[in-house]
Amino acid sequence: MFAPLLWGLLLLGSCGLNTAGEEGEECMVKENLPGICRSSSTCEPFVDGYIKSGILTINDVPSCGLGPREEIICCPTKPCCPNDIAETTSTARPPVSATPISRVDVPQERPSVVACKRIQSRFGENRLTVHILEGIPVNPGVYPHMVAIAYSTFGAPPEYRCGGSLISSRFVLTAAHCVNSEENNPVFVRLGTVNIVNPAQQYQDIGLRNITIHPNYVSSSKYNDIALLELEEEVNFANNSNIFPACLHTDPRDPPLSSKLFVAGWGTMNLTNRSRSKVLLRAPLDLVPLDKCNESFAEQPSTVRALKQGVIDSLMCAADTKHLKADACQGDSGGPLILDINVEDGLYSIVGIISSGFGCATKTPGLYTRVASFLDYIEEIVWPGNVLGTGGI
């Protein structure tokens, strides 16, 4: 079952003053604002004026439940404003069962934006406590999108050599170089635990159905280093606050230089013996503008072949400018560059994918695939037809 693109973000079960109902049943949109349960596509023109005027927000419009093809929402019975696009003086409003009103002139948000709104709404329901990151180790439930990618050879114990980010109930975002060869052929992903050797009780290991590498990725280059892993089955989010998708950053511009950026992963933590961490670690980084990043990489002759066009807009750079010896390293590849929006509320987005760098914790910034440059590629695979499923996110 599918919900329309624009209203797929409405929260199932968040019925406000009303309980779940069927089309045609009375409901309350907000105190003193009666409504009727209608399919989201037919209600959209009615509620549009309320939202534009600021009287209502998306979260003020309760869900009545799911219809056979889309969500049923509590729709105001009266138009908001004289210019409400749904208002008419010559004809009566169509009955609930009528053909949905055309959506041609209604601006639609892209699937990744709608998915993020749904994620942010539902994530608050699942959080047991407020987590504030204080140290390097990551507490359970802080980054519930984190995925460890497992590789196995000839029956040997699984080896977690790359990371990834859960972005929907069925897809993991990672780097192409993590999955582009027989040697880098993952067998499953591990979710819901910060300790990958002694996992938490509610962790999930899920096999892979398909791997899609960006069509323009070339292993000798640092460009288009992005891939999607389709899981064999949907992730079970029920009663588990340690597993949940992350939002994708959709602004193609660099975040402000003052932004709080972090990398997270299970990669190398000791450059002497190359030992990898058994627990999820995170490190604070600072954004490096592309012009400064290009200057840094121009000083490294070995990078010329892999960066023939230089550090272009589809890449990002970040570094440990405070000299804390913090950085992404081997084993962290494919994991996220995280933009913290609101730490207390657990709001953040995946702004980049750990791709490569010149060593670890050096003066040369690390390279990251800019997620916003690849939204069309991601959405075509994760949300084909610009439609979000109603069962998962």
Describe this structure in words.
The chain is α+β, with helices and mostly antiparallel strands. 12% of the residues lie in helices and 27% in strands. It has four helices and 19 strands. The chain has helices spanning 40-53, 111-126, 290-298, 375-382; strands spanning 2-3, 26-30, 33-39, 63-66, 71-76, 146-151, 159-166, 171-174, 188-191, 204-213, 227-231, 247-248, 260-265, 281-287, 315-319, 336-342, 347-356, 366-370, 388-389. Strands 6-7-8-11-10-9 form a six-stranded antiparallel barrel. It starts with a strand and ends with a strand. The model is unreliable at 1-19, 83-107, 125-135 and 269-275 (pLDDT under 50).
Features:
single chain; alpha+beta; 4 helices; 393 residues; disordered N terminus; six-stranded antiparallel barrel; 27% strand; globular; six-stranded antiparallel beta barrel; 12% helix
